[in-house]
Design goal:
The protein is α+β, with helices and mostly antiparallel strands and about 240 residues long. The protein is about 25% helix and about 35% strand. The chain contains 6 helices and 14 strands. The strands form 5 sheets. The protein has a 4-stranded antiparallel β-sheet, covered by helices on one side. The longest helix is centred in the middle third of the chain and has 14 residues. The relative contact order is 0.17.
Length: about 240
């Protein structure tokens, strides 16, 4: 366990596309360090860089962007670092490992206070699920359509709604919407999910249908299992009731 006093800082420089046993090397190293009980480690992705190959890796060039530098850094006791280095040497076949002497001035770890277990009440009910599929670029009177739909749902006193932004998708037109590191799409898929009573969902679906020009509205039956937690621990409630 890392304590106050002499320590060693280890910094590992590798490329993002480096592999280890069919897995990204930086993922393998972080998993290895975690399983070995390292107090903490950080992996950061650089914006650009070059190494011994004297080739500048930058996101401006698509071919080179896949080789951007990854920096992994952790601090541990000298004994622990000596134990880990042979395996790290074996894992990093193309990169750089730097070890520096350092001093831990303070290592504080605040133990979380266990929260009292609160009783809960289970409520089951029949409901309807409404899902709306649109594009991020869709508008309604000058504002994003998904914003306008959420506002409309609040006006209709719908219990709640969640907006999901997709990372990949296509619709009836067959156009693929995709976001990559080199191109930020302005029309990613958007899904709005709503659960409420059948009557309210019918009203909401009718209102949304008037707002959507190009999209998909889907409704289905749903079963609600809601757990309502008490605001006070059971012991505190018992004491309050006893006073009464």
């Amino acid at each position: 366990m890392l304590t106050k006093g002499p320590a060693k800082k280890v910094t590992i420089f590798i490329n993002e596309d480096a592999q280890h046993h069919m897995t990204a090397l930086h993922d393998s190293i972080m998993t290895f360090l975690m399983h070995k009980g390292i107090s903490g480690a950080t992996a950061t992705r650089a914006f650009s860089g070059f190494g011994s190959h004297q080739m500048l890796h930058t996101p401006r060039v698509e071919v080179l962007a896949q080789h951007l530098p990854i920096r992994i850094e952790f601090i541990e006791t000298p004994e622990k670092v000596d134990e880990l280095l042979p395996t790290l040497y074996e894992m990093v076949s193309d990169g750089l490992i730097e070890v520096q002497d350092t001093t831990v001035v303070k290592h504080a770890r605040k133990a979380p206070k266990p929260e009292p277990r609160l009783p809960h009440e289970r409520k089951d009910a029949h409901a309807r699920l409404l899902r709306v599929f649109i594009g991020e670029a869709d508008k309604w009177h000058g504002e994003p359509l998904y914003d306008a739909i959420v506002k409309k749902l609040r006006m209709l006193d719908i219990a709640g709604a969640t907006v999901y932004r997709g990372i990949l998708g296509y619709g009836a037109k067959g156009h693929q919407h995709k976001q990559s590191f080199f191109h930020v799409s302005r029309d990613m898929p958007i899904m709005i999910s709503v659960i409420d009573s059948a009557e309210k969902i019918a009203t909401a679906a009718e209102a949304i249908e008037e707002m959507v020009e190009d999209g998909l509205i889907v409704t289905s039956d749903a079963e609600i299992v809601r757990l309502v937690r008490s605001q006070k621990p059971a012991e505190e409630k018992d004491a309050t009731n006893a006073k009464r």
